[in-house]
Amino acid sequence: MSVPSTPEELEAAATTPAPADGLAGRFVVHPNEHPATEEEISQVLAGPGFGRYFTDHMARATWTAEEGWHNHAIVPYGPLSLDPAGAVLHYGQEVFEGLKAYRHADGSLWLFRPTYNGARLNFSGHRLAIPELPVDDFVASLVNLVRQDRRWVPGAEGESLYLRPFIFASEAFLGVRAAAAYEYIVLASPAGAYFPNGFQPIKVWVEPDYHRAGPGGMGAAKTGGNYAASLLPKVTASAAGYDEVLFLDAATATNLDELGGMNVFVVYADGSVATPKLTGNILPGNTRSCIMQLLRRAGVEVREDTLALRDVVSGIQDGNVAEMFACGTAAVVTAIGQLTGEDFSVELPTHTVAQRIYEELTGIQNGTREDPFGWMYRIA
Ligand SMILES: *Cc1c(COP(=O)(O)O)cnc(C)c1O
Predict the structure, then answer these.
(1) Could you tell me if 317 and 336 lie in one domain?
(2) What is the distance, to the nearest Å, from the Cα of residue 298 to the centroid of all Cα atoms in its chain?
(3) Does residue 380 fall inside a structural domain?
(4) Which pLDDT tens digit goes with each residue over 11-63?
(5) Are both 12 and 35 inside the same structural domain?
(6) Which of 26, 251, 339, 348 has the smallest count of CB within 10 Å of its CB?
(7) pTM greater than the 0.70 cutoff
(8) First to last CA, the chain
(9) What's the CA-to-centroid distance between 20 and ligand 1, angstroms?
């Protein structure tokens, strides 16, 4: 299977099923000799928050031009030894993923559509000239890591074990070219409910000046550089009381792109739904893809389109637009309650569709609802 380089190829690659088993043991386990005690784990799981605590192990593999990917292993979690000339520190050559492992009521452990993330890691890697990691290796790393650290998978409503696979250029060389050595690592971090107090609509600042990505750039790739570009406007917006920043297209600054790390949807009064089409500046979200499939299955008209900010704002003012929401793996679905820009501020009081989609998607992930598309992948 070749590396997907368009969103259509990515979508197709995601439907290739991962092998049901036989993946076990592909990453050789070197056990942590000082694992956390049950008591330490229960303390963490009592209030994990997000991205703060890490499990006993991490998955790891190395790529060199001579050997390709080798040394696949599950090793104790701990600091890396990286040459200060390591290319990632200078030129940002890295890509990452984000997905979750869920514990169902019967104790079984599951991933959600891991082949999408595996294919997308290569889709992103293609843009940054990073070597392909076989999707089977990607899935095996998650299966082997979560099985090893299963004690750390929380099981309460909205909780999960967040998995962070990433690849970075490790070669010690300051010349500017694609590096000749890479590390693949997967971290696992228990995650609490994103909105412990229930569904909370967010305030969004529409950024007029700064962009996270531009035409021909790497906006469609999941790479740290895009996040770096989003931080300054985010700092300014947070200081002014906003939760998130909505970026506009860099070419004209008139159309919706996406939030710093979430895709965006508009729900119209006639019941139809639209999301910005994947222009190359917008990251092809797994949650975005799943929401479109679930809505279409329910008979809702879903358009991927150019969404002019002006039309969306006037639609909210004249009642043509009923709701807006953002989506991504971490928060699943987040209702937008207020949209503010340089010369407008509009309220969105209704969140019926956002709430329904949230419940449907989290129901599938938690095993309490039917999984009509076969997205769940059992790992233990
Ligand atoms: C990860 C990410 C998303 C959401 O993608 P999911 O696959 O749904 O988690 C959206 N936008 C950006 C910029 C992202 O990095």
Answers:
(1) yes
(2) 25
(3) no
(4) 998 888 777 766 778 899 999 999 999 999 999 999 999 999 999 999 999 99
(5) yes
(6) 251
(7) yes
(8) 27
(9) 26
Mutate to test the pocket of ligand 1, among 112, 223, 262 (most ligand atoms within 8 A of CB): 262
The number of the ligand 1 atom at minimal distance from the alpha carbon of 263 is 10
Separation between Cα atoms, residue 290 and residue 357, nearest integer Å: 10
Residue with tokens 């514990």: 103
Query: Is ligand 1 within 6 A of the CB of residue 261?
Result: yes
| Domain termination residue (choose one: 193, 213, 238) | 193
- pLDDT one-digit tens code per residue, 256-304: 999 999 999 999 999 999 999 999 999 999 999 999 999 999 999 999 9
pLDDT of residue 24: 75
- Quick check: CB of 117 below 6 Å from ligand 1? no
Q: How far is the CA of 55 from the centre of ligand 1 (A)?
A: 23
Residue having the nearest C-alpha atom to atom 1 of ligand 1: 261
CA dihedral 55, 164, 157, 367 (to 10 degrees): -110
Contact 275 CB / ligand 1 (< 6 Å):
no
Indicate whether residue 329 lines ligand 1 (CB < 6 A): yes
* Confidence category of residue 193, pLDDT binned at 50, 70, 90: confident
Could you say which DSSP state residue 150 is in?
G
pLDDT for 114 equals 96
Angle, vertex CA 332, rays to CA 263 and CA 327, nearest 5: 10
Per the structure, the complete domain to which residue 65 belongs is given by 7-193
In this structure, are 293 and 310 located in the same domain? yes
